[in-house]
Amino acid sequence: MSLAIVHSRAKLGVQAPPVTVEVHLANGMPGLALVGLPETAVRESKDRVRSALQNARLEFPSLKRITINLAPADLPKEGGRFDLAIALGLLVASGQIPAASLEHCEVLGELALSGELRPVQGALPAALACRDNQRTLLLPRANAAEAALVRGVTIIAADHLLELCEHLRGEQPLAPVECNASPAAIGSLPDLRDVEGQAQAKRALIVAAAGSHNLLLFGPPGTGKTLLASRLPGILPALEEDEALEVAAIQSVCGRDMLQQWPTRPFRAPHHGASAAALVGGGSQPRPGEISQAHHGVLFLDELPEFDRKVLEMLREPMESGEIHIARAREQLTFPARFQLIAAMNPCPCGYQGDPSGRCRCSAEQVERYRSKLSGPLLDRIDLHLAMHNEAFSLSGEAYGKPDSTEAAAWVAAARDQQLKRQGCLNAHLDLAGVRQHCALQPADAAWLEQAVERLGLSRRASHRAMKVARTLADLEQAAEIDRPHLAEALQYRQLDRQPEAGLP
């Protein structure tokens, strides 16, 4: 057979679009032409494939005119992921492997000059696509563990090209790979009991976890803001299988090992010098940024005002929609970004405003300039604002302990279960219609809230988010209705929004 067709997968963002590798052998002047918009690494595959076949003692049809087409022609192809598909296509076209053995298969893998198979990025999105198309995936053994996380797809893995050839000929069939991933131990995560004192801050963290609310902690250095934020993953429930696969697919595209943390939620803490492309994604070949790598997890931004303001403003859209759109001249990509934002900041440039020691020397103008780095629309999208203060130092151990992560996780799980049964999503993700339906108030409480919102100078968005927080507070108490104490506590968490001298009615 002089024409062979092998199915493969490209990598485009977190997607794996299909690519058909067509190999044609013809008489004429010997040569090899590779077409289909290949970039440099793909064009170099012809040399890797030739050496791999020869070193594996397989025949390379060097006396034929070889044409290799990677379809569709308008889709950019990158990396060495098509090496194995091209090699198998040459073997099928030259009659060394039966064509029928690859009819229901897809192939991924980079070839070494010796014929060994090397891993590629994005194997898990390719496995998800194979499952949807009911095909078998052939790939390097180094990619087998992550691809096998996908249930319902047959994975055949090998270390060498010869192993796959013998399998496809039926000489020595390879057994399908089974998933060996075991859930990461939740107990290995930092425990909430390590935080000394700060009862109100612990309460706010539990509320944020229960409703997936964004949280801003501000206070002097050493009050435990970073310590507290790092305890959030330990009180969040483990990911559902579909969510875990979405997270693992993003990590696979980024070339990270997701098996050690499967299926715990990601925790990303980028440095405040991170660029816009690093935080939200992008580049000449767009890749997921930190907000996408925190999908279904936590994005922790320490020293929030130290981030470039333009970078922070780019968070506004994904905080609302749960996804980020990257536009380029030739393509537009959408990355998932349903993250929970936890931010920390100092109250002033020196960090000690309000400290009883009186060490702060910042002027009112300096403080205003420092806080103005955070725009009102961004602060509106952060549900909880909490001031933290230094507490008395103690080694007695009485300030530690309750609640620990196990106890807090049980409260969070119960509250989330109630939300999912009632409305099908967490409270932070309710739209305007959902707020009106599931956060309904008694007439007297509604009138009280209107007065409080006017006196505190809150925006309409901030008032809706306060109602969502009140709904979460009620869910933590397993209460069916929102009461005034829930509303009052929710408004106490809008401290950076308040106008001077404002108070609750």
TrEMBL record:
Signal peptide: none annotated. Residues 289-391 form the MCM C-terminal AAA(+) ATPase domain. Keywords: ATP-binding, Nucleotide-binding. GO terms for molecular function: ATP binding; DNA binding. CDD domains: AAA. SUPFAM superfamilies: P-loop containing nucleoside triphosphate hydrolases, Ribosomal protein S5 domain 2-like. Pfam families: ChlI, Mg_chelatase, Mg_chelatase_C. InterPro entries: AAA+_ATPase, CHLI-like, MCM_dom, Mg_chelat-rel, Mg_chelat-rel_C, Mg_chelatse_chII-like_cat_dom, P-loop_NTPase, Ribosomal_Su5_D2-typ_SF. Belongs to the Mg-chelatase subunits D/I family. ComM subfamily. PANTHER family: COMPETENCE PROTEIN COMM, MAGNESIUM-CHELATASE SUBUNIT CHLI. This is Magnesium chelatase family protein. It comes from Halopseudomonas litoralis.
